Amino acid sequence: RRLRSGKMAALEEAGGGSAEGVEAFPTTRLLLRNRQGVSLLHGPLADKNMEDTVAAASVAPDGSFAPLLGASLCEFSPSGEVVAVASATAGVVLHSSVAATDVEPQPPVVLEGCGRVQKLAFSPQGTYVVTWQKYEAEAEVQNLRVFEAATGSLVTSFPMKKLSSMLWPALQWTSDEALCMRMVSNEVHVFHGRELSRGVVDKIRSPNVAAFSVSPAATLPIKVCLFTPETKGKPANVRICQFPNSERAIASKTFFNAQEITFNWAPNGSAVLVKTHTDVDRTGASYYGSTGLHILHSDGSYDSSVSTQKEGPISDAKFSPTGRHFVVVAGSMPAVATLFDMRANAVFSFGTAHRNTICFSPHGRFLCLAGFGNLAGDMDFWDVNKQKKMGSNTAHCAVGFGWSPDSRFFMTATLAPRMNVDNGVKIFRYNGAGPIFELPQTQLFDAKWRPALPGVYPDRPQSPTRRNENQGKGSQAAAAAAKPQAYRPPRSSGALAAMMRAERAGETGGSGAAKLSAAAASRPKHLPVGMAPPAPAKISKSKAKKDKQKKKKEAEEAAALMQKLDLLNGDGGHDAAGDEPSAAAGANATKGGGSGAAAADAVEQPPDKEKRLKKLRKALKAIDAIKEKVAAGQDVNTDQKAKLDTEDTVKAEIAELEQELAAAGA
Fold first, then answer.
1. Distance between CA atoms of 22 and 16, rounded to whole angstroms?
2. In whole angstroms, what is the distance from residue 17 CA to residue 11 CA?
């Protein structure tokens, strides 16, 4: 996919000469939503030999995308090929965001019966669209709705009265869309990811659960992180369980001062960062409440509270897209930004500065540490691999921000209604140089890059710098200007000025960056004086082999139980046509650590049959209780009616298992 249409023409018109010999990558695009509607712009050229003026000239409206009027909300699909636009008049419409020069765009798709949608999200592979609107008790269709993206038809709906950032997205799929989960009171319901209309497959019981998050890894068993807030003097709890076999927690951690929570999974699902928050700080140290940070490995091998270098609130914490480390900005302002390894050991300090935002480039090579919101908007750009700062810049009053999918540009936007003046977009290079492009707007509501799937753009290192190239703050003309001398009053020692310069250096991130030694990184915070730090534990070859065998066995058992769940819910794991096994079942069996024969061997083990028989008898007992309610004239819900329909299947399997166990005992 090498494109030379709009960008190459812009290059020649800008006086950059012929476009021949210029390496062109897939076109990046920038979406803007303002009072006039939604529009797409071509992103700037990413060639290392391009001058800033030439690169900026390539930013132009995408003629293949007609502006959409009256939009109140817009969201890209994970692949970036579709953009969903919500408006009060037209509902939700799915538009193709692919230029006509790339592939033939698809016609718009209108979602059936959408009203004033307030939240919008896509499933991981873009198969479904989830919308939320204000709850109405008398509405024929519930307010949390799931639509098929290809046709716009309604798949299913659920009631959801209240919505918060901690509860969105309300439906969470595994990355392969084999399973879908939804939280209700005291439990999490599990659905077939591609057949939601078949109802609840299984449930994960968790009393007082307030939030949950599904691991991005699709390997079996699926990891799910559950949060229970503190109540009546009992501490809050975060635990990781696996599905199937969700009764036992793999990892668990308890702590106080936790009313709200934010999950941040490593991209490979190996660990999760848990950031907690309370509205009131009981110690009185902060007006904004108290925060905490913890890390849990999904295999249960390690969990710990993350110790920061400076006391104070946790401003931000994020995993790198590489999944090898994470960055934390913590402490009272000026805060300290620190790079940690996967065992929460501090590896590198980015120094002290007025920063509260972490933004990794999509490839994880570059990092922007910024002070947005109520801070001045200073930004530092780092090469994480080299642990070296590339440059700095400032974007005053920035509300929106983000990296381009090729990791070569960083965008900041001043948006309404947070800021109703000086709205617009600025684009900087990956090293902080610029802005190379500015677009003022009368009133801008949203600005975001069109995303791209991994592998579309290559991971490119820093480009070699030219002689006298300015990568710092401001323009070349300002850098060439003579530096004005500071005024010094008579008989002044300059101590106050030196102190102010030191503070300013801390604000711009120019001081305190250092690589932390292994001893300092692994040393406990309250180690007795004179005591050496404990040596890191080494895993023997035999233990590593046993752990590998254990994981393989768990995956095989999970694959077998997944197949059983398909058999209990209607069509024996086949798709709607009934001819081929479902993609979810096939993928799960493969990712479960082997073929279907391995899963069958796991099913044939007598202990597993006894467990299964016990679970089926329990289900039959629940069905009998529902039948008694029906006989007494009580109302039953949809899930209970679905359970009654499975009575014959459950009884038949119980009889079959009893015969097999009797034969095995004989």
1. 11
2. 7
What pLDDT does residue 99 have?
Answer: 59
Instruction: Find out whether 101 and 4 touch, Cβ atoms under 8 Å.
Output: no
CA distance 420 to 261: 31
Radius of gyration of the chain (CA): 28
pTM given for the model: 0.71
Exposed e or buried b per residue across 449-485, where buried means at least 16 C-beta atoms within 10 angstroms of its C-beta: bbbbeeeebeeeebeeeeeeebbebeeeeeeeeeeee
On the question of pLDDT at 382 being above 60, the answer is yes
pLDDT (tens digit, 9 = 90+) per residue, 120-144?
A: 999 998 899 999 988 888 878 888 8
Q: Which of 225-234, 543-552, 648-657 has the lowest mean pLDDT?
A: 543-552
Which amino acid type is present at position 553? Answer: K
Q: Strand order in 187-192's β-sheet?
A: 171-173, 179-184, 187-192, 200-205
Task: Share the mean pLDDT of the chain.
Answer: 76
Residues 6+ apart with CB under 8 A from 312: 286, 330, 331, 332, 335
Token representation of residue 582: 């479902």
Residues 6+ apart with CB under 8 A from 450: 28, 29, 30, 31, 40, 76, 80, 83, 97, 405
The two beta strands, 236-243 and 222-228, are antiparallel
Q: Which helix (H) or strand (E) holds 179?
A: strand 179-184
Give me the pLDDT at residue 619, please.
Answer: 84
Least confident of 90-104, 184-198, 304-318, 464-478: 464-478
| Of the candidates 21, 31, 28, the residue with the CA atom closest to the CA atom of residue 7 | 28
Dist CA 172 CA 40 (whole Å): 29
| Cα–Cα distance measured from residue 142 to residue 155, given in angstroms and rounded to the nearest whole number | 12
CB 31 within 8 A of CB 76: yes
Instruction: Report helix angle 596-603 to 541-568, nearest 10.
Output: 80
